[in-house]
């Protein structure tokens, strides 16, 4: 379905209770139910484009605490990063940014009258009315700041390209496809696409790794092994098949890091002051791969070749238990749950004797965890990268924030 078709399917959805901004689009965007100052005309269009598989930029919060994504912020992002998506001849499916601070998706244009599908509107309140509605407005009365065509960004970045899907034509062919998927541990959906083929490549030991793919519209680098290393102030553009690691904390990474058997950071990010562990993905010198929740590297097995810490996913997903909540030390309380918010995140995982480096755009930590399950990963952690996450893979769609430098990088190798 197109974004416009999906938008139409939501007609009549209302926030509940009225004037609360508690609605499925905000819950999806922020990763939790919200109320108060969270207008949702932008989060509505973000969700419908996400459902349609159309790349959209991540929008943060306009206030330090509890703000919301804004129309102005969205338009500014496109003007700065994808000006070719700003159009003057709007077509059905384009986004309409009204000067009153409201957004809709265009259904029809007749002269100066625009018919749009809007989230968070009503007949009495144009831009914060609490319902998904079809509205018709004359641009003389309701002037427009700009029109955005998100699909142009997808085409320019390769976002609309992926492997052709193979489906069975007969009942026995369909049964065979699902049997193959079940046997290799892929999602049993009857469609052979990038995930199924990459799983097969891993299992048969194909000589093609490291490999950059788009799996469920996310940039993914699959490699035989990983090498974490200090970037020495450099950025991702100087290296191939890399993803960002963690923030700086003084002169060390925030999370546990072992590089070539040498401990670069001994303690979990919330261990020294708050006694909270983190989840560590590691590889031993005998090539054994494992995952463990620890406070420091002393709790890892002996003979670690490399180890990387972060927020545990899958069976190790425990945000509060690993310190991503409000924590108090010496009378000062800090809210670390902001790391979980909807932004860009980096994830590394393991399955089928291969490692996955995944750039997770516009996701909460809960959505990253759900994506790890969708990829059918055996182990996975989310890195402490936040909105400055970046990846530099072998395809144009996997070159994101390549000039961003963090404390360390992780490289996929043969």
What does this structure look like?
The chain is an alpha+beta fold and 414 residues long. The chain has three domains: 3-156, Alpha-Beta Complex (endopeptidase fold (from Nostoc punctiforme)), CATH 3.90.1720; 166-207, no CATH class; 218-413, no CATH class. 20% of the residues lie in helices and 33% in strands. The protein has nine helices and 27 strands. It has helices spanning 3-9, 24-30, 41-51, 71-81, 150-156, 171-184, 194-204, 271-274, 365-374; strands spanning 86-87, 95-98, 102-110, 113-121, 131-138, 144-148, 166-167, 191-192, 211-215, 218-223, 225-230, 242-244, 248-249, 252-253, 257-259, 262-265, 278-284, 289-294, 304-312, 326-329, 332-335, 343-351, 354-363, 379-382, 391-392, 399-400, 408-413. Strands 9, 10, 15, 16, 17, 18, 19, 22, 23 and 24 form a ten-stranded antiparallel sheet that branches. The protein has a six-stranded antiparallel sheet with strand order 1-6-2-3-4-5. The protein has a five-stranded antiparallel sheet with strand order 11-27-12-25-26, with no helix packed on it.
């Amino acid at each position: 379905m197109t974004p416009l078709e999906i938008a139409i399917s939501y007609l009549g959805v209302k926030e509940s209770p009225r004037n609360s901004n508690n609605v499925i689009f905000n819950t999806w965007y922020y990763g939790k139910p919200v109320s108060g100052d969270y207008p949702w005309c932008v989060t509505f269009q973000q969700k419908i484009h996400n459902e349609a598989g159309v790349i959209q930029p991540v929008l943060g919060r306009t206030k330090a605490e509890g703000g919301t994504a804004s129309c102005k912020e969205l338009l500014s992002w496109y003007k700065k990063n994808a000006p070719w998506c700003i159009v003057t001849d709007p077509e059905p499916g384009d986004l309409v940014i009204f000067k009153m601070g409201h957004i809709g998706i265009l259904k029809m244009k007749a002269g100066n009258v625009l018919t749009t599908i809007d989230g968070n509107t009503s007949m009495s309140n144009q831009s914060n009315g609490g319902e998904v509605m079809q509205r018709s407005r004359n641009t003389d009365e309701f002037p427009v700041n700009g029109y955005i065509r998100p699909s142009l960004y997808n085409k320019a970045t390769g976002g609309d390209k992926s492997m052709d899907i193979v489906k069975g034509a007969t009942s026995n062919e369909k049964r065979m496809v699902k049997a193959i998927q079940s046997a290799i541990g892929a999602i049993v959906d009857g469609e052979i696409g990038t995930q199924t083929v990459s799983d097969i490549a891993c299992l048969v030991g194909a000589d093609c790794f490291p490999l950059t793919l788009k799996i469920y519209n996310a940039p993914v680098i699959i490699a035989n092994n990983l090498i974490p290393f200090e970037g020495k102030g450099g950025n991702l553009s100087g290296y191939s098949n890399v993803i960002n690691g963690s923030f700086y904390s003084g002169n060390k990474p925030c999370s546990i890091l072992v590089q070539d058997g040498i401990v670069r950071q001994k303690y979990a990010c919330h261990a020294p002051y708050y006694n909270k562990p983190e989840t560590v993905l590691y590889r031993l010198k005998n090539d054994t791969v494992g995952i463990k929740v620890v406070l420091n590297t002393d709790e890892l097995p002996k003979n670690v070749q490399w180890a990387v810490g972060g927020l545990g996913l899958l069976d190790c997903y425990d945000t509060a238990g690993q310190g991503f909540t409000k924590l108090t030390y010496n009378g000062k309380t800090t809210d670390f749950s902001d790391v979980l918010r909807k932004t860009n995140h980096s994830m590394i995982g393991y399955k089928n004797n291969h490692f996955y480096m995944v750039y997770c755009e516009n996701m909460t930590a809960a959505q990253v965890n759900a994506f790890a399950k969708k990829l059918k990963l055996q182990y996975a952690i989310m890195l402490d990268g936040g909105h400055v996450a970046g990846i530099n893979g072998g395809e144009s769609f996997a070159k994101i924030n390549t000039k961003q430098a963090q404390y360390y990088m992780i490289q996929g190798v043969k």
